[in-house]
Amino acid sequence: MKKEKLKTGILIILICSAVTLAANVWFGSGVWPRGYDFFVSLPNRAFFSQLFQKEQPYIIPMENLAKPRMLVVTNGGNRAVYYNSDASYPAYYDVVNTFFKTALSDEGLVFMSTVVGEDEWYDVLRNDELLDTRSIYISYSTAFSPRLFAQVVGIERTWLENRTDAVQELILAPVGDTGEDVLLYARSLADGTVSKFYINYPQKAALNSIISGMDGNQGYSYAFELNLHDSMVGIGGGVEQKVVMDPMLLISPRSTESAVITGTNPIASKTDTEALLSVFDYRERGVNRHTGADGTIHFVENYGSISIYPDGLVEYYAVNEQMGVNILPAESGTASLYDALNGAVLFAERVWKALVPDQPFDALISSDLVENENGEYIFTLDYYYEGTPITMARGDMDHAASIRVKDGRIVEYRHILRRFDGTGSQTENAPMLQAIDGLYARFSEEESQIRITDLYLSYIEDTQEGGRKPVWCARIDGREELVYFTE
Fold first, then answer.
1. What are the Cα distances from residue 265, in Å, to 145, 303, 310, 393, 418?
2. How does pLDDT run across 326-338, given as a tens digit for each residue?
3. How many CA atoms lie within 13 A of 114 on its CB side?
4. 10 Å Cβ neighbour count for 32?
């Protein structure tokens, strides 16, 4: 009996050894010619790959996408602004998001709707104690199609997709202290049309509570309240003002402090390179490799290539688009905008975690998110540090990452990998009004009028060594280049 058990044990060991040796022969890079990938030659590479890879759960990284860039709370003569990095932000965001989940999923709560003029949009936002205005202005970093907006806030579909096109700005305005009436304003990205909806909202008291409980008056004013958006100034016929601001630009008289940071390339060793390649399902010894004169390392596989530049830029191109990196969940048969975006963000996070496992991937989508018919999308992401955006200034790339997805596969991926750390030092930022004075001085002699669409603090990342302090950056209507002010 003991002999039979011994024979059985030896047989099991031999079988395991045979399987291990076979796996080494099949998957070992040393037994195949350079550039040859065994699974590439198989008709269903994904099927065989899944057999030998641990199944990864499909994580939904949409939480940050659903968070507005800022919430502006106005209560009569008081106003406060909450950015998504502020400690008080979550309390306001939770109440606002609960409203969207409830109101946008049930069209029965809408008892009237109309289209209103721009003047009403501005009036409901005014910081005027006599008007007793109470509102929450909600601004996202990017524009959403209504269907995608519904998905990222946590509902499958919304009646809003039949009432308006892509939106980036919304306003919630409770009507009075009693009852359940709340006004929802949505401004169309395409033509600026303002849609006004009368909502019967049972949890209106929660909206009134957070508006009443805001942290005092922080001194912010919209450009339209200061007449900085008006093109004509002066007496009589007036003089054309050469520099005007977007009416919704928030102006603050206060100076603030920010951290001084450093940016470094996290790809520092052969181990880092191998970790990066593995995310793309590449093996360093299983692909053709050559190094350019500038130090860029190129890896060429049967259906695609990866280039790793000395400053941390990683480029992936699929020669055959049908063999690009599949980012659809296993149960999905279509490449919807939601699935494509979800998969692209998750993949970028995997790239990040392969090299910087000890830091969260602090990046937000910066491209507009609108459905199209051909299933092809280009998503861009930008880094943030403690809520302050980081502007990439590499020359050929001004975003942290650019991801082109076609039919649920990544066919082009560019990512400037930079790790950002605080130096322990703080710097006082120049007041916003000083930046506005600089804009007037710079463009006062222009032949045509200049319209500033955005003005904000940002770190400038040029992939060079040294510390970085935030500087004021301006976006100008009709111009691609970013204007920024350095000391």
1. 35, 28, 8, 15, 5
2. 988 665 556 788 8
3. 8
4. 17
DSSP H helical segments within 200-289, as ranges? 204-212, 270-279
Q: pLDDT digits over 157-200, tens only?
A: 899 988 888 889 999 999 988 878 999 999 988 888 999 999 99
Q: What backbone phi and psi angles, to 5 degrees, belong to 170?
A: -140, 160
pTM for this prediction: 0.80
How many helices, marked H, and strands, marked E, lie in the chain? 9, 28
- What the block records as the tokens of 434 is 């000083």
Write the single-letter amino acid at 378.
I
Pick the closest to residue 100 from 186, 35, 192, 13 (CA basis): 186
CA proximity to 307, closest of 416, 147, 450, 393: 416
What is the torsional sign of CA 176, 178, 179, 182? positive
Question: What is the Cα–Cα distance from 199 to 102, expressed in whole angstroms?
Answer: 10
CA dist 378 and 143 (Å) reads 14
Residue type, 193: T
List of long-range contacts for 113-118, beta carbons under 8 Å, 24+ apart: 113/163, 113/195, 113/196, 113/197, 113/198, 114/195, 114/196, 115/193, 115/194, 115/195, 115/196, 116/185, 116/194, 116/195, 116/196, 117/194, 118/192, 118/194
Is residue 209 a contact partner of residue 228, using CB atoms and an 8 Å limit?
Answer: no
Compute and round to an integer the Cα radius of gyration of the chain. 27
Residues whose CB falls within 8 Å of the CB of residue 313, separated by 6 or more in sequence, listed in order: 307, 394, 397, 414, 415, 416, 417
